Amino acid sequence: MDNFNRLFADHRVWLRLAALIVVMNGLFPPLWIFLTSLKTESELTSLPITYWPADPTIVNYMTAFSEQPLLRFLLNSFVVACLSTALAVFVSSLAAYAIARLRVPFRNLILAGMVAVSTFPLITLMVPLFEIMRALGLLNTYPSLVLPYAVLSMPVCTLVLVSFFSGIPRDLENAAMIDGCTRLGALFRVIVPLSAPGVFTAGLLAFVNAWDEFLLALSFMSSQEMRTVSVGITLYQGEFAFPWPLISAALIVALVPITILIVVFQERVVSGLTAGGVKG
Length: 280
Description:
Blueprint: H1 2-9, H2 11-37, H3 41-45, H4 59-67, H5 70-101, H6 107-118, H7 123-136, H8 143-166, H9 170-178, H10 183-194, H11 196-212, H12 215-220, H13 229-232, H14 244-264, H15 266-279
Helix pairs in contact: 2-14, 4-14, 5-8, 5-11, 6-8, 8-11, 8-15, 9-10, 11-15
């Protein structure tokens, strides 16, 4: 009994238990979706519930590509996410540099305002954004999503980059300007390369936000050929039926690009988050 009490008195046990719960909470939903995508409709609705497919099949994946233009949905999401990420990181770099390096009045108030704006519910912005896009004739075009997504990602990207730019010695950019660089040249030739982990972190956050967004994509893209993958997946459901194995297969396909990005840039993103936290 003493050993049992001593075991649970050790804080490391509780930390490991908490970490296990967090990991399971993150892994179980995609794992369940993946297993569902390998089942047939009859097996999914049968009782008792089977957690592992009795006869795994990839028919749902083949049907997902043939029943709807899933490749077109993926292409639309990829184009929108890449363009909005590039725009958000570019403008956020300028804003972060101004806040971190220039004598901007009310610097802390500006940063607080960015945080406050980023917490606004998206539904409150949908109607004015829709009216603006309709007036500009941008509905059913890539800019109708690229511009709002970039603006929505800028507060978070700016906050991430400010912490990195503030931690870089001013002597480096001063030396670059002495050698003939303009201030803008020093930013993109010295500051941004040295802040690569922060730039990757900001870019990944912006990309994931654009890839997953649903409300604006549903409202601004009424043409089927312009649908993004988050909206296109909803087209698999019927009026009276929800083919969950088919929908699950489409969801897994939509998760693949994000998973690849996280795996490829994992070290840079983790170092960016930790370094940014220390510098800030």
